[in-house]
Amino acid sequence: MNNTNKYKSDIILDLNIDDDRFGFATSIDEALAQAEVELVVLNETVESIKELKPQCDKLDYILAASSGALCGVIDIFLVGKPDESPLGDITDKWFANRTIDFAKLCGYKGDKNSLSSAINFLEEKFKIPYDQSVGGGIFRELINLTPSNHHFKSLGHNPTLLGLFFSILNQFTNTSDFVSNGELISLNNSDGKFELQGKNIPSKLFCGITNWIGHLISDVSGSSGSKGRGMGIPSPIWAWSNDVIAIKAKLNIPVTEFDKSVNELALKLFKKGYDVRFQTTQAIPVFINEMIVRLLYSIRRLIGYYISVPKNDRSWGLLWKSCEPFSNATVKRMLTVAHGTFCIIDIGDATIRGFEKGIGSFNVFEFVLRLNVVGVGRFAISLYGETKRAISYDHARESSDFAAKEITIVENYIEGLKILSAKYDDARLLTFIADFKKSDAYIKAFERSVQLAELRNVPANRILKDKADIDRYFGGK
Questions:
Q1: What's the predicted TM-score (pTM) here?
Q2: Which CA distances in Å does 448 have to 433, 451, 452, 460, 469?
Q3: Residue 309 class from Cβ within 10 Å (0-12 exposed, 13-18 middle, 19+ buried)?
Q4: Among candidates 300, 292, 302, 297, which has minimal Cα distance to 341?
Q5: Contact 264, 199 (CB under 8 A)
Q6: Among candidates 191, 154, 148, 186, which has minimal Cα distance to 171?
Q7: Cα 154–150–240 angle (5° rounding)?
Q8: 3, 218, 285, 397: which could form a disulfide with 74 (CB 3.0–4.6 Å)?
């Protein structure tokens, strides 16, 4: 009702009095335009809440769950665990080929089919001071460094932001930093021959970052002397266990037994082949699940659009709005169902394998080795989105309900304005001085004023008998 009163005041209160007529600063057409703008805003408010609520039907849920189940089966039989993964073998070959391609890009001229030669070339080109694979004496006793664990224990080999930080630090100071047994251990003057290239700080920083990236690529498929699959670089998801210990050590915060246990578990996973390559393999069924659901959503809406919209009313803009599988709540709900189904199947399989491997007890290591962490993470993101949309929906529902009531009021107000506009046919100002002068109210008002003046013995030449007398009086004429 407030909006209606606002437009009424624009018409009724903004009254101007000219020499020979009354006029309004706001015309009916202008008020009508303002009301229509307000109606558009109110409709957008009502429509906005629809964007927060999924419009899934039974078939949408069935298709989403089917996609999740299909990809769950792919995960069980084609991903599995390291060294027993058909998809993992394909992923390993892909990374090996990309390593050779990168070596060629950097000037490698050796055997194009020799991975070890390409890796050796990259190791020489992107030298770093923390590439020890074994240690001796006290250093070996403290760290227990071996070719199978040095990529994990060496912080510079971790593909994380903290890994980059320690890599730059080690290259500038010629040191090595390792995490072992819940402790951060540093080795000074780790490579007497190492010298970071660059003439000043910015150039050295650039060379340090380049060395870090280049050396990670050289190690992603194992070292030059690796036999078989080789030890790649740690998974970023599990490398955080090193980051936690390193940060706590630098801040003098005690490392808990939980931190140590998780770090030890991550190291055991790495030594079993759970590296970046296997993490990428786990992402494949998750990605397929994502694409299938979005594709199914678009196809259903595309068919529905062509069935329901007449040919003359079709447009690419409306088609895209109807079919785009990214920003609407419906496709996001379908993704939640799909990834949830995937996780149920994956966790179920990992749990069964854990009990099977434990022989009467539950083998946590086997469970985690088979658990698709990428799928769990993607499902967690979907759940976060569902929670956020539910909260937003509750907040917006009250505004939407009020806006729906306002729409009825404004629509009635617009109809009234249209009637006035048609009656006065006013394109610029609402004027009706002629009608007002002829009305009884106008005449009686001036007659009453004259009678009162005569009763008070006002001279006849001082009595204001009509609007012209008023104008002359106030105009000084």
A1: 0.76
A2: 20, 5, 6, 15, 15
A3: middle
A4: 292
A5: no
A6: 191
A7: 50
A8: 285
Calpha distance 238→221 (Å, rounded): 18
Q: Which pLDDT band holds residue 285 (cuts at 50, 70, 90)?
A: very high
| CA–CA separation, 295 and 303 (whole Å) | 12
Structure tokens at 204: 């050295």
* Pairing assessment for the beta strands 175-180 and 183-188 based on DSSP bridges: antiparallel
Q: Using the structure block, give the residue that is written with the tokens 């021959």.
A: 193
Per-residue pLDDT of 85-128, as tens digits, reads: 999 999 999 999 999 999 999 999 988 888 999 999 999 999 99
Quick check: 393 pLDDT over 90? no
What percentage of the chain carries pLDDT values higher than 70?
74
Q: Which of 455, 448, 431, 439 is nearest to 26 (CA)?
A: 431
Written as one string, the DSSP assignment of 170-228 is: HHHHTEEEEEETTEEEEEET--TT-----SSHHHHHHHHHHHHHHHHHHHTT--TT--T
In whole angstroms, give the CA distance from residue 107 to residue 233. 23
Beta carbons within 10 angstroms of residue 252's beta carbon: 6
How many Cα atoms occupy the beta-carbon half-sphere of 114 within 13 Å?
13
Identify residue 283 by its one-letter amino acid code: A
Eight-class DSSP state of 462: G
DSSP 61-116: HHHHHHHHHHHHHHIIIII-STTS-HHHHHHHHHHHHHHHHHHHHTT--S-TT-HH
Q: Which residue's entry shows tokens 């009502």?
A: 46
Cβ-contact 35, 410 below 8 angstroms: yes
